[in-house]
Amino acid sequence: MTPRSVLVLWDIDRTLLYVGNIDRQVYREAFAEVVGRPAERLPARGTGVTMPLAVRGLLLDNGVPESDVPALLPRIIRLLPELLSRHLPDIRRDGQLMPGAVTALRAVRKSPELLPTVVTGNLQPNAEVKLRAFGLHRYVETGIGGYASDDSHRPALVAVAQERARARHGNPYGRQNTVIIGDSLEDIRTGVEGGARVIAVASGTTTAERLGVEGADAVLPDLTDADLLLKTITQLTGQG
Fold first, then answer.
1. Beta-bridge partner residues of 146
2. How far apart are CA 93 and CA 128, in angstroms?
3. Minimal CA–CA distance to 220: which of 238, 206, 199?
């Protein structure tokens, strides 16, 4: 394998860390500020959908006319990073790292053949707040990731990250040498449709059995075995 020849795309929520109800509280606060009344229904947990799509659902599920969504949605999107930043002390106090996350991140980062970044349904500022809250930003190149602020269609984010990685590091990246590590069915769909191998981690709301049935190339129970993770990346990319 040549230096940085494999692009590793980490999911964040429930793969690396979990912030509990804080995301939902932020949605609640943003909706109340923009719409002027409390939200009675909040986005489902652990789905992996991008924030713009979650906000669209939040508006419609709470009785906002569809004709009003194009004006209200960007206002809420602009608020989300600011509101999440206000909750940074809560994230540090109440959030948690997923088992093995730091060891796995460190192992991938140390491998000279692997180029780690993120592909996430979070907006980029929100992703960076979460990563920095736990010191995880040091293990990924956030500047070449794919974020919901780039495109609300999550599979499109794979190509965004591949192109940014190519521009910075000079290597071409496609399905054969790009790997997503994530916990949700959206992570699988992102890889299948977007052009990446998928290592599913059963640390979220979806069982290992279903992750395998739905098309993951490999399924791990968690991230506690960093050597197994590295071996799986090598097997899936056919390099090494």
1. 119
2. 17
3. 199
